[in-house]
Structures are given as structure tokens and as C-alpha cells.
Amino acid sequence: FFLANTADIAGRGGAIFNDGGTVQATGFVVFSRNSSASGGAIANSSGGTVTMEGTGFTRNSSPLDGGAISNLNGAISITGGNFIDNEASNGNGGAIYNANGAGTVTIEGDIAFVRNIAGDNGGGVWSGGSLIVSDAEFDDNDATNGSGGGIFNANAGTMTITRTSMYTNSAGDRGGGLRNGGVAMVETSTFTMNSADRQGGAIVNHEDMTINNSTIAFNDAGLGGGGIRNASQGMLDIANSIVSDNTAGLPGGDCSDDGVFNSLDYNLDSDGTCPFGMANDISSGNANLGPLIFNGGTTLTHLPGPGSDAIDAGPLTCASPDQRGEMRPRNGVCDIGAVEIVPPPDVCYNLYTGQLRRVTGGACQSPYYLPVIFEEGPHYLCANLHTGSLSYSYGPTCTSYHIPIVMPDAAPLDVCLNLYTSAYRLKQANQTCSTGEVATVLQ
């Protein structure tokens, strides 16, 4: 534990000052109530390297920049852990400040930024260097008098965000979730219920930004661009994304644009304010998003509900997996947005006999049957050499007179489906199905 340590000199770190060395923290390490003029808990400088895994930062503070961490010129890697209630009261980066220039910060692996506050910009993170964020949650962070409630990417910054959820963050100026002034890529992520007093409830873009396979919904701005605000110098490309059900005090609930805003196709908005004019774009559509809950994976997401215009309306291929880790596409075509609907199983196996049988819609009959979704393999099947009947196995070894089959690695299996029992059996080459059976495939 590093508790209640202080440093009076700016850039020296309340608990640790790393001046060109190497710091590694793994296991149960907590930094709490440390304070410094810059870098409340840790300051990293002169090309130093800091690596942390599962580390907690709570209630650290700085009157200037970096409530928990200030990275002036070095490399910081953070895996897992959390940043909670840290504050840069009159500066930037409530949790992390990554200075302009050669600073590099990597944030990944089930990590949470919660209730961090910056008096100016970047309630969660302020970055003017290189920033990589994946599998993270930014919840209820605040840039009180500035922009970028979750993240502020400055003019010199380069940023990539993947499989991340930003929700209920706020900014006193622009970009409740994210403010971009540099180069930014957002991939397979969710921005929801963020707010900005002025523009860009979820996102405001001033420079170069790309958004792919993401969901931006239920955000609010006091002026324009409840979902996305693309400013006059902004260049924004967006593909296979939902921008839906956002609100603003002025026209432009989902989108507001004064720059260059390019749809790369397969996008959906709910009010027609986004410049979605490509052949497969859906303007004024119905995303019918469910509540923000755990739908699998490590982050909260919105799942498109029944009848959603986003389902099976995307391209034939898209970045896989989705935000939850589900493979995509499922039905030969991607869904629009950050998550892919997993269709109900059409194969169940009996827990006692291992027999495979078909279901038409709905779920397997519990507690005797469990579903099989072959795309999530490997799954091991055994085929009886005499009868051809297929049974489920918990490993690659089959009993005598059976041959093993590994799905989905195997090519589609030619099978016969019994119309009365719904059971499958392997169809041998040049064999025809019997009366009462129909030929089909398992894949």
C-alpha cells in the first residue's frame, strides 16, 4: 500500500518519481490519498518505464495535472485494475496525464475509470502522446470546466480505443465522452448516456477521426450534436455504426457537422441528422436498443432488440470479435454496431445420452438438453460407425466403433435429420436418407 504520501515539487509524484528507471507493480498494489503538484501518486519522466497489473488508484490528487499519474516522457503500461475518485482539481487528466511528445500510455484488460475529475480537460485521461485503450470502462468521469469527460486527446495525440464502454461521463464544455484534437481510431466500442453542456454529448472531433463497428446512443448535448459533433476543422470517417436516440438543445440530436463527415456505408441514425447517404446506410431508422447491461464480455453494452433495423444490416465482413468477444458475422452478414446478435441454437445435446437433436427457434429443453453453437468451438462429436448416429463428447476421444469429428474445424457435415425424433445421423458418401428423414448439413 502507498498511502497519504506527498511531494511538493511539480512532476515528482506523491508516492513514486521514476526518473528514467523501471518500475513494476503486480498483484495487490494500491495507491490511495497520495498527492503532488503533478502526478498525485506516480510521476514518470526521462524515458522511464512503468508496468502495472491489477493496480488500484483511489482518491489521489493534484492541483495541476494527473490526479493519479503524470507521464511526462516515458512509457506506461496498465493491465487491469481501477482508477476511482482521483482528481486534478485545477488541471488536466483526473486520473492520468500523458504529456505532449514522446509519452506512451497503454491501458488494457478489464480496467475501470470511475468518478475521476479534472478541473479543466480529460476527466479520466488527458493525452498529448500515444494512447491505446482496450477492454476498458469509463464511468461517471467529469471535465468540470473543459472538454473530454472520459478522454481528451490533444492536438499532438494519437489514440486507439477498442472494445471499450464510455457511459455517464460529462464535460462542462464539449465532448462528454471523448474530445479529439489529434488522430483517433474508435473500434467496436459503446458511448452512451454521456453529456456535454455545449456540443458533442458523446464525441466532439476537431481533427482526424475514424469510427468503426460502434454504438453511440442516448447521449445529450446542451447545444448541437448530442451523439457526434464534427467541428469545422474535423475530418471524420464512420462505418457500420449506430448513432441513435441522442438529444440536443439545438438541431442535431444524433449528429452536427461543420467539417468533413464521410459515411463509409452501413451506418444507422434515428433522426436523419447524420450525413448517412451511402447505399446501405439507414437514415431515421429504429435501432431498438436494449438497456445498458452485461451482455457478455467485460464491459456493459446495448443489445439490439427484436425488430431492430441494425440486425443483419451490416457488411458481409467486419472486425471480429464484437465488443463482448462474440465472433461475427453470425448469419452470413454483420449486424450494425458494437455487438453481434447470437442466434438461438438449432442444435441441442442430451446431457445423459449425448444425442444431438434439432430445435426450431427458442431454447433447448432444460435441464436435459444444452445448446451447441459450433462457431464457438471446438466441439467434439462422435459418429457411430454402424448406425451413423451423432453424439456429443467432452473431449477428442470416442469409444469403440465411433469416429471423432471436431466442429467447427470440420467441413460442413452431410447428415440425415429424423423428422419424427429430430435426431441427427451422419450421412455417408453416396448414401441417401431413409423414409422419414431429410438431408441437411451441420456446420
Summarize it.
With about 450 residues, this protein is mainly β. The chain has an 18-stranded parallel β-sheet that branches. A ten-stranded parallel β-sheet has the order 3-7-11-14-17-20-24-28-32-36, with no helix packed on it. The protein has an eight-stranded parallel β-sheet with strand order 10-13-16-19-23-27-31-35, with no helix packed on it.
Q: How are the SSEs ordered, and which strands pair?
A:
Blueprint (H helix, E strand, L loop, with lengths): L1 E2 L2 E2 L8 E4 L2 E5 L3 E3 L2 E2 L5 E4 L3 E5 L2 E3 L2 E2 L6 E3 L3 E10 L2 E2 L7 E3 L5 E11 L2 E2 L6 E3 L2 E10 L2 E2 L7 E3 L4 E5 L2 E3 L2 E2 L6 E3 L2 E5 L2 E3 L2 E2 L6 E3 L2 E5 L2 E3 L2 E2 L6 E3 L4 E5 L2 E3 L2 E2 L6 E3 L2 E4 L4 E2 L19 E5 L7 E4 L42 E4 L5 E3 L10 E3 L7 E6 L5 E4 L8 E6 L5 E6 L5 E3 L10 E6 L1
Parallel strand pairs: 1-5, 2-6, 3-7, 4-8, 5-9, 7-11, 8-12, 9-12, 10-13, 11-14, 12-15, 13-16, 14-17, 15-18, 16-19, 17-20, 18-21, 18-22, 19-23, 20-24, 21-25, 22-26, 23-27, 24-28, 25-29, 26-30, 27-31, 28-32, 29-33, 30-34, 31-35, 32-36, 33-37, 34-38
Antiparallel strand pairs: 39-40, 41-42, 41-43, 44-45, 44-46, 47-48, 47-49
